Model the fold of this input.
Amino acid sequence: MNIEISNLHHIYTGGIHALKGITLTIRGGECVLLLGQNGAGKSTLLKHLNGILKPTSGDVVIGETNTKFHDIAHLAQFVALSFQNPDDQISSKSVFEEATFGPRNLGKENHEDLARDALRMFGLEEIADTHPYDLHPSKRKLLTLASAIAMDTPVVAFDEPTAGFDLTQRSLFGEALQKLKERRKTVILVSHDLDYSLQYCDLVILMDRGRVTFHGGKVDLLSRPDLRELLRASGLGPPILWRMSRVVGLRTVPSSVEEFSRLLNEKRTI
Amino acid sequence: MAHPIITVEDFSYSYRASTKKALDQLSFSVDEFECCGIIGPSEAGKSTLCYAIASVLPHYFSGGTIEGRIATAGLDALSIHLEAMMKRVGLLMQNSEVFLTGIKPTVREEIAFSMENLGISRSEIVERIQSVMDELGIGHLAQRDPLTLSGGETQRVALASVLALNPEILILDEPTSSLDQEGVRDLKLVVRKLKGRKTILLVEQRMELLPGLVDSVLVLREGRKVYRGPAEPFFSGFDCFEEKIGAPVWTRICYEIGNRTNRETGVLPYTYRQALQELSKAH
Done:
């Protein structure tokens, strides 16, 4: 399902001009990394996808549906959002109930299967009966990720999904992302952790103070001569993998430690 | 000669209604002015340990089971009144927005709040606000409404409120988890500034932040201590791989590509800079 955003502006009631004319297309099945400083407009943009926020001007069209004319209840069948703070979104008395809440509300008959499948991705099925507030905060966060995936919507967006995660939890989320890609879901990921998230995303959108400063392929971004300046404008430093690959003279920029090692070995044998 | 300012002895803790021990017979000490990283997988007991050292545990979590002893700045952390401990230990928790009172109209008044509560004199409060805002570079936020701050700004204001009480010990529980890269850089600068003047405990999941910043690490797993010692041998040896806590990206790269020097010496580069130097020499 495509997302078409054209000349989108958003001005908050207090007068803050958070989005200043965003125009972009995200195609069905793409996995996009959305980057920018705190305050760049990333979360504001996400909230337009399922109608939590409406454009001050411009349009957001999900598939055939212009978000202007529909409410969240209707748009939720297309877009699932998972926010940074798990305590903003958990409302049920058990882990299982929480994961079924979304798909049941969307009227999906297989809501229990969808919930079980999503919980299994994060190793939460064994604690399906536990009250969410008896869980460790990082498990509550895993639960909100699972609940978003359980909705089985064509578009899923995650805001800082791995903040505070340990290594195991980060790789669990990485595996979940792979599954979503296999299922041809459109995935939008907001993350400050470049070295981690570049492993999974194919496309990158860079934002700076309400504007898009880059939108394109990950490889295109990483091979740009002005990468440093481009990232710096968004408050980011270059990925560690990128810098190290330049030091050893790799022509292609690897997106994971494993790929780094493979590319270097290929270079050595030539 | 350094002397221990925090001493934890055979300390165990279980939360109410939990059958598992969050911390299990933990013993270690931290010297005055040491900067110690606390790391380990999720549910290792890192936050619980912070609460215990700062005396929050017995006051805010009723019904837990406590065993052992903790002495913080010469006080019994498990029985002392929280107010007395607040002057000695500053604790910054993960969600800094919960530190805001939500009723103070300006950042300046927000920072004054904890000092007013402890009965510090007006002239002293004014002086301390100025010095702590200078120290953290947040003078420009003084008249802002605390509820309109960004995540990074909120955190610096929360830290200012904690530092204004002039604690000897500063405990930062995953301070970077919701910050962008700029916020992380700022926090790192603050820690560097305070190092050598305060004893600092820094709980962190981003391993890239610790080498070169902390002097030592305490590694926890399932409530138990698995490593306690200087940071450099931990990160430049192979220990950081075995504990599955996520070695820094540069360490993983050097480990993966198996630089000959690393194989011979069994030593991986400690800091990012060292890794870059080593790689450029080898290639």
